[in-house]
Give the backbone structure.
Amino acid sequence: MKKYLFLSFFALLAFVLKAQDESGDIVKVGEQMPAFTIVNDNGTETPSSSLKGKVVLVNFFATWCPPCQKELAEVQKTLWPKYKDNKDFAMLVIGREHSDAELQKYNEKKGFTFPLYPDKNRAVYGAFANSLIPRSYLVDKTGKVIYATKGYTDEEFAELMKKIETALK
């Protein structure tokens, strides 16, 4: 009997760990945003501590990712114009495995008016997740993750807009 209980426990543990790996999640809703520093090609740094007291949207994308393109187009059209001048809001759109030079070329092609940040070695991305893009994390003024998305749908984007509005109140 103990043998079966022991085997059942390890089978359940293996299933839970596999499911966790497939989600790619490291940071979950309700947890604090991890500390990180974005390092640009020229050596300038943007530490997460500089965002303290703001509602922060952290978005991870790649230039080759079709769902990322849809999401960033919607950010440019809807989200950025609405919140770019709000002193209590910050947005970090981070190119996973991209350099400043690559992002500059990409931005020239796309014409985005919001800044793009490099994450050449997945250092920042790796603090949040281990797979799947696009990903977005909405962080409240206390530094807690209050909403997270994987992939892109119009419905999730609409929900993100509502969550930003509520967090800024």
